Amino acid sequence: MTTEMADSESESRNWDGERIARSSIIEVIAMDTEIRDAVEREVACCDRLRSAEIRVTVQDGVVTLSGIVNECEDELAALRAAERVAGVDAVASELAVRSRDPLERCDTELARDAAHALALNTSVPRHRVQIEVSRGWIRLKGTVDTESQKNAAADAVSSTLAGARGLVTLIDVKPLVPPLNSQ
């Protein structure tokens, strides 16, 4: 917060060179301590976080959560708990998710990997297939022009299935040009 001492012992300068009274700096530190204590109480009151190992640090109203939680949903619960505290300007998560099964992955990881696999596959029209992941199940939804595009989407995402419960393909095939009637 301060970069150098000002002319008098009771003042400092902020990053913009403006003078700040020492009492203001002490107030910010006191507020950060109060915020930290309030966030710790809020996290402790959340039932799903009782077994989590969460550390809270605060600097200038920005809360950083670090440590280990049991599930991805626990990370979200911790973030929401911190956001509920008055005086919190922002929350950063450095939480790690402890996996019970070495093969199990959280929904966020599965969604990210599935989206990456689809983006790399040039056979699948961009932005025509949506990915939803919930409780380890990957669902593909959308509309493509051909059966081969539908299959390409499923094949691409199937490479990300390690740690997933399964893949559900709900992609519709609707050709842009209707087939010619042969008489």
How would you briefly describe this protein structure?
Helices cover 34% and strands 29% of the residues. By secondary structure, it is an alpha/beta fold.
Q: What are the salient characteristics of this protein?
A:
183 residues; alpha/beta; Histidine-containing Protein, Chain: A; 4 helices; disordered N terminus
Q: What is the strand and helix layout of this fold?
A:
Elements: E1 4-5, E2 11-13, E3 19-21, H1 22-45, E4 53-59, E5 62-69, H2 72-83, E6 90-97, H3 107-120, E7 129-134, E8 137-144, H4 147-158, E9 166-173
Parallel strand pairs: 5-6, 8-9
Antiparallel strand pairs: 1-2, 2-3, 4-5, 7-8
If you had to describe this structure to a student in words, what would you say it looks like?
The model is unreliable at 1-9 (pLDDT under 50). This protein is an alpha/beta fold. The N and C termini lie far apart (81 Å). The chain has helices spanning 22-45, 72-83, 107-120, 147-158; strands spanning 4-5, 11-13, 19-21, 53-59, 62-69, 90-97, 129-134, 137-144, 166-173. Helix 2 (72-83) links the parallel strand 5 (62-69) and strand 6. The chain has a 3-stranded antiparallel sheet. It contains 4 helices and 9 strands. The protein has 2 domains: 4-97, 2-Layer Sandwich (Histidine-containing Protein, Chain: A), CATH 3.30.1340; 107-173, Histidine-containing Protein, Chain: A (2-Layer Sandwich). The chain is 34% helix and 29% strand. The longest helix is centred in the first third of the chain and has 24 residues, at 22-45.
